[in-house]
Amino acid sequence: MDAQTISIGVPVYNEEETLVQSLESIVKGVLELEQKSNIILCFNGTTDHGRDLAENFSNKIYPLEIISSPKGKPSAVKAIANHSNRDILIYVDADVIVNKSCFKNIINLFSSDVMAVTGRPIPYTSNNLVSNILNARMSHPGIEISKSGGSKPFLHGRIYAIRKSTLGKIDQDFSDAIGDDTFLSHYLLLNYGKDSIACCHNANVQYQPATSVKSWWNKWSRIWQDLDNLYKNHPEFLPVKNSVKTKIDWKNVPARDIPLFLCERVLHYGGKTYFNIIKNYKETKWIRLEDTQKVRL
């Protein structure tokens, strides 16, 4: 990745409780990079004191470029892309702890065929049985794989990188959708092929996952709604619908965790069946999951 430059983009919405800790970990990751880099924070509709915290951090600890956008993560993603003059954009959430080598490992995976690289969000460990069931897949990176073979074939919204030139092309064709990682994944697979998204197994960020079935349902019903809307509004992506389907690599599931995975699969397929029954009667809306908005020191 010689001669490439990098922007770390952080969309922020009412995350004052986690922002400073996340920024501290982001800075440690940036300092590991050999390439020229900067950090861009985009506050999108924030009503808390997060911007004051960011400005204080920028003045005293590490310089940040702080911008604003209309409310919504897609608006923030687009504003960061428009503000940056760098070659690679790494997007990371403001409620995660970034592994020190995360950014470096992501950048090292870029090649002439790779348009985007996804990292690996890892949930905090828990002694809560319900939480361990809900998050069984994410707690074991590499266990969920593509049904057609190979790594999980789409971007993780909490941490991914993309070429700015690629994002610019998408912006020309689908200006309102570039901040949606579901849309980005389908666009890349359709237009650049299955090898255009690389999965970096050692680019980790830690996050507080959903800890209740209610939060799990709010999260997944919205994901399923997004997918339905994507195929309805953009039928051109139907040819790659099967390419994003995943399965569990059961032979690599630790024996002690097989019961957790079995329970998670029953919940997942049961939830999806229920969603398909009710989706024509009730529109699913984004609900902020308060139990996920935490970091561990």
Summarize the structure in words.
The protein has about 300 residues and is of the alpha/beta class. Helix content is about 40%, strand content about 20%. The protein is built from nine helices and ten strands. An eight-stranded mixed sheet has the order 3-2-1-4-8-6-9-5, with helices on both faces. A two-stranded antiparallel sheet has the order 7-10. Strand 1 (about 5-10), helix 1 and strand 2 form a beta-alpha-beta unit. Helix 1 packs parallel to helix 2. The longest helix has 21 residues, at about 215-235. About 35% of the residues are buried. The model has no long low-confidence stretch (mean pLDDT about 90).
Describe the structure concisely for a colleague.
38% of the residues lie in helices and 19% in strands. By secondary structure, it is α/β, with parallel strands linked by helices.
Write the layout of secondary structure elements.
Elements: E1 6-12, H1 16-31, E2 37-44, H2 50-60, E3 65-69, H3 73-83, E4 88-92, E5 97-98, H4 102-107, E6 116-123, H5 129-134, E7 144-146, E8 159-163, H6 164-173, H7 181-192, E9 197-207, H8 213-233, E10 246-248, H9 258-278
Parallel strand pairs: 1-2, 1-4, 2-3, 6-9
Antiparallel strand pairs: 4-8, 5-9, 6-8, 7-10
